[in-house]
Structure formats: C-alpha cells, structure tokens
Amino acid sequence: MTQTVFILNGPNLNLLGEREPHIYGHDTLADIEQRCIARGKEHGFEIDFRQSNIEGEIINSVHEARKKAVAIIINPAGFSFTSIALLDSLKAFDGVKFEVHLSNIHQREAIYHHSLVSKTAHAVIAGLGADGYILALDALRRRFDAASK
C-alpha cells in the first residue's frame, strides 16, 4: 500500500536556482520535486509536494496532512524562525516530521540559528542542499521499515 508523504516548502523557495545560488544552490524547486517524486516511488511513497509564500496555506496543508499523510518533510524557510502558528499546527500532526534546510542555518547569521519548527521535528537535516530532501525520504523509509519489524 502506498503511503503519502507531504513535502511542504515555505516562502521564497519558489525562487530556488535564482535567489542566492551561492547559499541555496542551482537546483530549482521543480528539480527537487522531480527528484523527490522519483525517490518516493522507489520507497513506495506518494509525494504531495507543495510550496507557498503564505503562512496560512502551509498551516492548512499541515491540517490536511493529518488525514492524508504518514509523514511531513518540511522546509519552512523563513517561517522556521518566526511562526509559532506553524509550530502549533505541526504539534497537532501525529505522524513523522522531518525538517529540511538547504543551507546550514547554524553557520549563518544569528537570526537563523533558532528554528521553532525543530521543537516538534523528529529530525533535522541542514546544509546538504537539495540532497537533504532525498536523505529525508531515505531515512523515512528506514524508520518505517524498522517500526514494522
């Protein structure tokens, strides 16, 4: 049976490949989406990949995931550091939650060092660029396989 994984992306990630490629890399969000869909198929996951610059839309996606998904992989981008509302919505999701950041937020300016979302994430991947999403899917598959033994 296919398991659905929501991959949620926050503000400005629609500009990947254009905005600060020296920090975020040259992959576009569409490139990352295609890689995630392909890896998801390998692992038996259906990928629901979304991006929004609007906090409420991401929160609504988390609420939708409560009924439809076994896991959320989220790159909250700027909302990582500001959104208590997003944190609260993620606390209401009972499935696995992985937080992904393209850059190493701990090497950046101090404002980027404290992610609120990390308080509810089962794991955080930072600084591995687009590969972080793929590694999150791999780790998710291993986690589910170990739980079923």
Question: Key terms for this structure?
Answer:
Rossmann fold
Write the layout of secondary structure elements.
Layout: E1 3-9, H1 21-24, H2 29-43, E2 45-51, H3 55-68, E3 71-75, H4 84-91, E4 96-101, E5 123-126, H5 131-147
Parallel strand pairs: 1-2, 1-3, 3-4, 4-5
Describe this structure in words.
The protein has helices at 21-24, 29-43, 55-68, 84-91, 131-147; strands at 3-9, 45-51, 71-75, 96-101, 123-126. It is an alpha/beta fold and 149 residues long. It has a single domain (3-117, 132-147), classed as Rossmann fold, CATH 3.40.50.9100. A five-stranded parallel beta sheet has the order 2-1-3-4-5, sandwiched between helices. Helix 4 (84-91) links the parallel strand 3 (71-75) and strand 4. Helix 2 packs parallel to helix 5 (131-147) and helix 3 (55-68) packs parallel to helix 4 (84-91). The chain is globular and about 40 Å long. The model has no long low-confidence stretch (mean pLDDT 91). Keywords: Amino-acid biosynthesis, Aromatic amino acid biosynthesis, Lyase. It holds the Pfam family DHquinase_II. The active site is at residues 24, 101.
Counting DSSP H or I runs of 4 or more residues, the number of helices is 5
Radius of gyration, in Å, reads 14 Å
What integer is the average pLDDT? 91
The CATH topology is given as Rossmann fold
How many strand units?
5
Helix/strand structural class: alpha/beta
Low-confidence segments, given as residue ranges, are: none
Overall geometry comes to globular
The amount of beta strand, in percent, is 15-25%
Helix % is 25-40%
Largest sheet properties: 5 strands, parallel
**Topology pattern, helix = H, strand = E:** EHHEHEHEEH
Binding site for substrate: 75, 88, 102-103
EC number: 4.2.1.10
Catalytic activity: 3-dehydroquinate = 3-dehydroshikimate + H2O
Pathway: Metabolic intermediate biosynthesis; chorismate biosynthesis; chorismate from D-erythrose 4-phosphate and phosphoenolpyruvate: step 3/7
